[in-house]
Amino acid sequence: MPELPEVETIRQTLKQLVIGEEIESIQVNWENIIKYPLVEDFKYLLVNQSIQDIKRRGKFLKFYFDQHVLVSHLRMEGNYSVHKQDEPYDKHTHIIFNFSSGKSLRYRDVRKFGTMHVFKKGEQNNVKPLNQLGPEPFDEAFTIDYFAERLQKTTRMIKAVLLDQSVVAGLGNIYVDETLFKANIHPMRRAHTLSHKEITALRAFAIETLQEAIEQGGTTIRSYIDGHGDMGMFQQKLYVYGQAEEPCQVCSEKVEKIKVSGRGTHICPSCQPL
Could you tell me where in the chain the CATH 1.10.8.50 domains are found? Predict the structure, then answer.
């Protein structure tokens, strides 16, 4: 968390709130979030720059300034919100972008796992972290042929493959569990054993699930809120994730929680036989 739908929702809301804002100063309370360049250079490159656009790549936000791009990953619990500069902030607020308008964009992260990189415009996609990403489900490059080739070349469990951002960008634990349930595929199936029909279904349900989640503003689990401070509503439509011991909405069998590739995983043992 947050995954592609949550990051996309944050992008959409922040575009309404900060486009055109000029950075007057930057306060860094936890330096480890700034991965590139050095903290003082990070500030130097962005101060007096205006936010021109906000885009997304997989789970990454991309803030486009006059000359540079800020690439931000929220990791487990990072979030952005806009405030008046004189509003108090808590100990989990680690980066504050103060605008000349008197407002500020604040990055809050309880676990401090989030990352920020600043690159010259045009360079951001050619270096880490963005150059490590595969296509996301909405990309034209995410074709059946591409997906089938990547799955047929690995003996890893299908859940591990779907979580691999170099294979497909944007899917995380929640939406992988939901996608596999809809496709009636057990998460421990070896990827190379999937039939063409199953791969086709998996691709279609991944796209469908992410699109539905975006329309609902994402899924609120633990601390996720969008740029307005609102919660997502897709959790009301989850079939298996977070539903352990509840009856399956399709067959009434109890949903189980197991471990797959070190991740908590939710399945219906009847709908997803191994």
Answer: 144-267
Q: Indicate the pTM of the whole model.
A: 0.89
| Greatest alpha-carbon span in the chain | 58
Distances in whole angstroms, Cα of residue 158 to Cα of each of 150, 207, 260: 11, 16, 10
Residues constituting the chain = 274
Q: Which of 229, 247, 5, 261 is nearest to 154 (CA)?
A: 261
Decide: 74 and 62 in contact? Cβ < 8 Å.
no
3 as an active site residue: the answer is yes
For 260, phi then psi, to 5°, come to -135, 120
Q: Is 263 a known active-site residue?
A: yes
Of the candidates 11, 59, 159, 182, the residue annotated as catalytic is 59
- Homologous superfamily of 4-132: MutM-like, N-terminal (3.20.190.10)
Active-site residue, selected from the candidate residues 35, 256, 263, 269: 263
Point out the catalytic residue in the list 3, 21, 77, 136. 3
Which 3 state secondary structure label does DSSP give 257? strand
At 171 the three-state DSSP class reads: coil
The model's pLDDT over 229-243, given as tens digits with 9 standing for 90+, comes to: 444 444 557 899 999
pLDDT of residue 38: 98
Report the amino acid identity of residue 207. I
Exactly one of 2, 129, 137, 187 is catalytic; name it: 2
76 secondary structure, DSSP code:
T
- β-pairing verdict for 68-73 and 53-57: unpaired
